[in-house]
Amino acid sequence: xxxxxxxxxxxxxxxxxxxxxxxxxxxxxxxxxxxxxxxxxxxxxxxxxxxxxxxxxxxxxxxxxxxxxxxxxxxxxxxxxxxxxxxxxxxxxxxxxxxxxxxxxxxxxxxxxxxxxxxxxxxxxxxxxxxxxxxxxxxxxxxxxxxxxxxxxxxxxxxxxxxxxxxxxxxxxxxxxxxxxxxx
Length: 184
Hints:
By secondary structure, the protein is an alpha+beta fold. The protein is built from four helices and ten strands; from the N terminus they run αβββββαββββααβ. It has one domain (3-182): Mog1/PsbP, alpha/beta/alpha sandwich (Protein Transport Mog1p, Chain A, 3-Layer(aba) Sandwich).
């Protein structure tokens, strides 16, 4: 084993031991990206390295947050947040939809890693957030998902921003969802 191989093995071993202890640590998984640990390390997802990891402003609600560079022509960045889901799945989905007027919505049920996933797409005029000062107006989109696990709780993943920015990052959002894993 080369020196680089030994260092990589030691780093992976260290981060695995941290996450098994319920400590959230950002690592670079082998395929690149940001590892996200939810539910005291019981749930793991991987976000693309193209997204910029941010310190969550609302730590009681948001466990991980990312800023997404605006697409050409868009004036504002996108935002991805993840965390534990409180208040019920349908109430959260309805709250997300209510943040838009003239909304075009699409909802679908999926199963990922043996877990129930409700995926939502909303297009329309974003009203903004009552908690954050941020751009709003017509031409915005939201991609959201709630995941109800059998043994590790319920979680949300929410991505919103100017429509072109969200459209250009939809594959990365879907890959984030597909990376969902529950540890025994």
